[in-house]
Amino acid sequence: MLETDTATDIAEITFPAGLPGFPQAHRFDLAPWGPAGSPFLLLSSTEEPDVGFVVVPPWVFYPEYEFELDTGTAERLSLTASEDAVVFVVVTLRERPEDSTLNLLGPIVVNRHSHEAAQVVLPSAGYSVRAPLAIAS
Predict the structure, then answer these.
(1) Gap between the Cα atoms of 23 and 5, Å rounded
(2) pTM reported for the whole predicted model
(3) CB neighbourhood size of 36 (10 A)
(4) Which residues does residue 87 pair with via DSSP β-bridges, in sequence order?
(5) Which residue, 6, 8, 118, 124, is most buried by CB atoms nearer than 10 A?
(6) What is the C-alpha separation between 6 and 83, in angstroms, rounded?
(7) Which CATH number goes with the domain that contains 86?
């Protein structure tokens, strides 16, 4: 099961295959988003200025979140151990923050050493693309 610490000093991520819906966007900057201590990050395309996403480590809101990474993705990202991976999920922001959601079905997996990444779609994982952004207790 892929269940790893997401603490990282990664500042730039490369998606060799692009992102679903954004095939021309390959290079992204990753920067803190929100007040000091916020777990949220802004993933901004360096090639497409209008493409950006708020992301967060999934375990901040879903401590039990885990999944099996398919062999093809693990090989493409040169991941041999779960400790080599950093995982983020995309946040869909709503007008009311409590209505915001997380895409737990399509996590972004990053090799913490090469900074290469892919967004994967989890088959039959039982996760939602609109999981509630519950306040962690």
Answers:
(1) 28
(2) 0.89
(3) 5
(4) 109
(5) 118
(6) 9
(7) 2.30.290.10
